[in-house]
């Protein structure tokens, strides 16, 4: 069963280790020094940033990270995304990683994403959908989204996180389930 807890300052060394892993660094392209992790994750951990960083736990041990945000909190991002697809009011987005290579390729990515979706629907009643742009070359990422129930709704050029990537992104979307109808989950 996947459980969740918010990222705390004590988790920064672990996040730095994960961000330094080649399978993570390739797509996140983020500095991993303790200073950089503190700079990038500190405001969220302190509740000073609307982005919510959550550790995914398997049997009580952290194995992944999901960031979730209300797109309305990032107007520049909404403007860029709106050039490619409709961004409805209440839309949210996520970014995610599996930190330990030993957990990659075991089906945990889709399970983690699906578990976070249930958390979003439960904790953010105003959330209408979740939109996730993924660089087209990152097949494992967009496939994990599809396995978690997302549908590709658009393709278009967006600024990549890693400058070595092409601008082509696939936009994946899942809408809030109709009241009373829930798909079975891998974590239930």
TrEMBL record:
The keyword Coiled coil does not apply. Keywords: Transferase. GO terms for molecular function: N-acyltransferase activity. Pathway: Siderophore biosynthesis; mycobactin biosynthesis. InterPro entries: Acyl_CoA_acyltransferase, Acyltransferase_MbtK/IucB-like. It holds the Pfam family Acetyltransf_8. Residues 5-55 form the Acyltransferase MbtK/IucB-like conserved domain. It comes from the Bacteria. GO terms for biological process: siderophore biosynthetic process. Gene3D superfamilies: 3.40.630.30. The keyword Transferase applies. Acyltransferase required for the direct transfer of medium- to long-chain fatty acyl moieties from a carrier protein (MbtL) on to the epsilon-amino group of lysine residue in the mycobactin core. This is Lysine N-acyltransferase MbtK.
